[in-house]
Write a structure and sequence with these properties.
170 residues; 4 helices; single chain; 7-stranded mixed β-sheet; alpha+beta; 31% strand
Length: 170
């Protein structure tokens, strides 16, 4: 398998968004069943793509897009955020996610702390971040412990929430 993580080209943004939305949709529907509502609205992807310090990457295997990531890099503080990471539905479970993560760590060796979050229900993501990537759960955002940057649909009346993960780099 010939893997690379390349900066996202402007022309690839529509495909990137669509593939990411499909991957996030699958994660939700695997737990809750089919829904017509988009789990990851395009405005949320745009917000990450346009954030200060953002960088977007496409994961490419043997010349084909297989996933991608959006990070927000703070070069002054070395406290970086993994905003979004996805693996295309067709190649999930084949080690692509960890390849993406390892390459991001390699690209940003000055990072002191990485942070990310994932919905409470996504056990697969929780396993990935803690057991594969070495993150630690440090906070649970929910209706009793809200966060101004967390979309309301994740902390609303249904008691949903988001786990916040942190990885201290050595």
């Amino acid at each position: 398998m010939n893997f690379s993580l390349v900066p996202l080209a402007e022309k690839d943004i529509p495909f990137f968004k669509e593939e990411m939305q499909l991957a996030f949709q699958k994660g939700f529907e695997d737990v809750f069943g089919k829904t017509e509502q988009p789990v990851l609205p395009e405005k949320d992807i745009d917000s990450s793509l346009n954030a200060k310090g953002s960088a977007a990457y496409a994961a490419v295997i043997d010349g084909e897009r297989a996933g991608g990531a959006v990070v927000a890099i703070d070069t002054e503080k070395g406290h970086n955020h993994l905003d979004l990471l996805y693996v295309k539905r067709e190649v999930q479970g084949k080690g692509v996610g960890i390849k993406i993560w390892n390459e991001l760590e390699r690209l940003y060796p000055e990072t002191r702390v990485w942070e990310t979050c994932t919905p409470y229900f996504d056990r697969r993501n929780i396993h990935f971040y803690i057991n594969k990537c070495g993150f630690h759960a440090v906070e649970f955002i929910n209706e009793k412990h809200p966060d101004k940057d967390t979309p309301e649909e994740f902390i609303g009346d249904g008691g949903e929430g988001m786990f916040v993960f942190r990885k201290e780099m050595r």
